[in-house]
């Protein structure tokens, strides 16, 4: 089982600032109230809230273990590519379209942070998932990563 857990964690490592991005459950993120070695996370769940603001999109993701607030910031204006549109705007547009409707299944990768005493995910990547089986694979990987990195299990999970 340890080999499978290591393999799952290796499959899910993503590098933003040379830090691993483990696949986690929302309740793992919510219980990480004290500063931990986990700063980058990957979550999969259903969009249950969405609020479009001037400079960001705030949305809630529910994976069945809890709901976490995620924030997707609009990029600052910069010089663009050949068509005058910055690459960051195209990525923001795709990500915001992924959360444009409640009930969509998405994968969020980003930085774990605190705002006004509440944990949230500063989304770097948001992907709409069209295959419901992807969520099941995410659950399996999250369970294996939870065991591998030593996160205490919540009651009933």
Q: Can you characterise this structure?
A:
By secondary structure, this protein is an alpha+beta fold. The chain contains four helices and five strands. It has a five-stranded mixed beta barrel. The longest helix has 17 residues, at 133-149. It is globular and about 40 Å long.
Beta strand %: 25-35%
Q: Give the helix proportion (percent range).
A: 25-40%
Biggest sheet: strand arrangement: 1-2-3-5-4
Number of strands: 5
Distance between the termini: 18 Å
Strand count, sense and barrel status of the largest sheet are:
5 strands, mixed, barrel
**In DSSP terms, counting alpha (H) and pi (I) runs of 4 or more, how many helices?**
4
Provide the residue-averaged pLDDT. 74
What Rg do the Cα atoms give? Answer: 16 Å
The ordered string of helix (H) and strand (E) elements is HHEEEHEEH
Label the overall shape.
globular
Structural category is alpha+beta
Low-confidence stretches: 1-9, 12-19
Gist of the model:
With 157 residues, the protein is of the alpha+beta class. Helix content is 29%, strand content 31%. A hairpin with a 2-residue loop joins strand 4 (105-115) and strand 5.
What are the salient characteristics of this protein?
alpha+beta; 4 helices; globular; 157 residues; five-stranded mixed β-barrel; disordered N terminus
How are the elements arranged and paired?
Layout: H1 2-11, H2 26-31, E1 40-52, E2 56-62, E3 67-73, H3 87-98, E4 105-115, E5 118-128, H4 133-149
Parallel strand pairs: 3-5
Antiparallel strand pairs: 1-2, 1-4, 2-3, 4-5
Helix pairs in contact: 1-4
């Amino acid at each position: 089982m340890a080999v499978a857990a290591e393999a799952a964690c290796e499959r899910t490592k993503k590098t933003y600032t040379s830090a691993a991005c483990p696949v986690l459950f929302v309740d793992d993120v919510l219980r990480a109230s004290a500063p931990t070695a986990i700063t980058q996370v990957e979550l999969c769940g259903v969009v249950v809230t969405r609020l479009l603001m001037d400079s960001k999109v705030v949305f809630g993701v529910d994976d069945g273990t809890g709901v976490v607030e995620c924030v997707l910031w609009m990029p600052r204006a910069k010089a663009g590519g050949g068509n005058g549109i910055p690459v960051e705007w195209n990525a923001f547009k795709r990500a915001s379209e992924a959360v444009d409707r409640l009930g969509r299944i998405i994968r969020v990768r980003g930085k774990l942070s605190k705002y006004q005493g509440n944990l949230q995910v500063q989304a770097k990547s948001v992907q709409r998932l069209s295959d419901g089986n992807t969520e099941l694979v995410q659950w399996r990987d999250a369970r294996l990563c939870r065991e591998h990195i030593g996160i205490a299990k919540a009651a009933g999970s």
